[in-house]
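Protein in question kept underneath.
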Amino acid sequence: MISKIVYFYTNQFSGPFPISVLELPRLRILGLANNKFTGHLPANIGYKLASLTKLYLFKNNFTGGVPESLYSMTNLEIFDIRNNSALGGTLSPNITNLQSLSYLGMSRCNLGGELPEMHSLKKLVTVQLAFNRLSGIVPILNSSSLVVINMKNNSVTGSLDRISGSISLRE
């Protein structure tokens, strides 16, 4: 039987991302959070783990930004890589490919650059982008399910009217 869920939260794993995990193409949930992994995420992670619905990588020491292939993971509902302060890079405009995304956790990742538009992400419930170096105009967020938007401690500008499509914030 092929494992569909792998959880190794809160352990003492260290070193690079375990490449052997990429050999589990039917994996649905991967939890490697709160360890001591370092280095770059594999460039092909999104292609090799295309069936993932939940990816928990928070509280590690990853670097090198989010690989572009990750934005091809159309089944991904939860992407949580918070508290990887050396991650760096930008938030790709290709985030709009993640049409199933309900939770985006990228706070404290040292992300820079302009915020991309996210109006096509209709299933978003939570957006955590606090304590980065993001700039630009507040993205349009049209998810009727949106409950949390946390973009504090960035350099975001514009009008908060751009989140007005978030019906759940008005109720």
About this structure: The chain is about 5% helix and 25% strand.
